[in-house]
Amino acid sequence: MKVFSKIVDLQNELFEVRKQGHSVGLVPTMGALHEGHASLVRHSVKDNDVTVVSVFVNPTQFNDKNDLKNYPRDLKADCELLEKCKADYVFAPEVEDMYPTPDTRQFEYPPVSTVMEGAHRPGHFNGVCQVVSRLFYIVRPDRAYFGEKDWQQIAVVKAMVRHLDLKVQIVECPIVRDEDGLARSSRNTLLKPEERAIAPKIYEVLKDSVEYSKKHSLKETHDFVVDKINAVDGLDVEYFSIVDGNTLQDLADWDSSDYVVGCITVYCGKTPIRLIDHIKYKES
Ligand code: PAF
After folding, report:
1. Which CATH number fits domain 2-173: 3.40.140.20, 3.40.109.40, 1.10.3720.10, 3.40.50.620?
2. Ligand 1 pocket test, candidate residues 53, 61, 158, 185, most atoms within 8 A of CB
3. CA–CA distance, 185 with 183 (Å, rounded to integer)
4. pLDDT in tens, 227-271
5. Is 37 a catalytic residue?
6. 274 CA to centre of ligand 1 in angstroms
7. 21 by DSSP, 3-state: which?
8. What CATH number was assigned to the domain covering residues 186-282?
9. Is 28 in the pocket of ligand 1 (CB under 6 A)?
10. Does the pTM of the predicted model rise above 0.90?
């Protein structure tokens, strides 16, 4: 496995790879890698001749300076995991290399980019599109792998790929959970033991709500989730939206769509750590 920090070095290497007719998979990450990332890398290694994993904490997608400062970073541990997963290349650039001049491009893909995370984290998806489009231009992957945990992000990236007419296939990989149901996330490492102990309640309630939804209205199911999670000392729901899986718009009742997803963001603990998750009520 080779580690590159300079764009030109990675591009020279990939030029040779492509000359041999090899396919390239890209797994974009912000590091602090865990089993969720490992599963993306394994998917890519299976599908492509070579796999590039980018490790870059992208400042433009953070709307909160403290969140950026506290974001976990450990390139050495990341490389150890990536070696085990048989990644071929790690691309870990500095901020100045990725953004030699400020990126002033604006990406907006309403309705999918303006609701939920888009509404609660202003500028977040704009920053994600800035960095992901740059990575796509640099690496020119045949396929790029994203985890379903960031479910809305996948919809936004797909909209961007259509808009920019990029020749890359976006591959969605299933969410990876700990044994107690907590969705794997780099932010989980920031949870104190007492916070880690209550965090699985989020998915537990989401799962219970699927059963509950069979005999209750959408509004009742919404309130069931919010009330049950807020009842746990240390958990505070920021939003829970039950949306159409394609447009990501709020639904009024279960019959309005064949593809229904509940998306939640919860603050956990005193710091607090922001956790996101989702559940599918109906899938088309
Ligand atoms: O999902 C993430 O980790 C990030 O948003 C991504 C796609 C690597 C862009 O920085």
Report:
1. 3.40.50.620
2. 61
3. 6
4. 999 999 999 999 999 999 999 999 999 999 999 999 999 999 998
5. yes
6. 16
7. coil
8. 3.30.1300.10
9. yes
10. yes
